[in-house]
Amino acid sequence: MVDTAALTGLEGMNSYEVIGNALGISAGAVLIIITIIGIWALIWKGFALWKSANKKSLPWFIALLILNTAGILEILYIFVFSKISFRGKTKPKKKK
Questions:
Q1: Which of 7, 32, 82, 91 has the CA that lies 20 to 30 A from 76?
Q2: Is residue 92 in some structural domain?
Q3: Cα–Cα dist 4/19, whole Å
Q4: Structural domain includes residue 96
Q5: Which residues, at least 6 apart from 78, have a Cβ–Cβ distance to it below 8 Å?
Q6: Is the pLDDT reported for residue 8 higher than 90?
Q7: For residue 45, with 0-12 CB atoms within 10 Å meaning exposed, 13-18 middle and 19 or more buried, which class applies?
Q8: Is 91 contained in some domain?
Q9: Nearest to 62 by CA among 77, 40, 72
Q10: Are the CB atoms for 77 and 48 separated by under 8 Å?
């Protein structure tokens, strides 16, 4: 058998080091970036799930729960899709 790790020069490297080498940054910086993206996505996912649950929108709740888009779908749902009704009209805002 051929040792592919030895041929590629990746022997003894973890995935953070491989990604860091490809991007030209340290493994620690890769870990910090991944952590920040994870926290960012978790915050937006929480807001979007809360909003879809309050609107009793089960399809959106399931889609937001299953799909992981680093916050992109969640932001679109909060600011775009949650304000559009399926009848083609936007829902009026409630006055306090």
A1: 32
A2: no
A3: 17
A4: no
A5: 44, 47, 48, 51
A6: no
A7: buried
A8: no
A9: 77
A10: yes
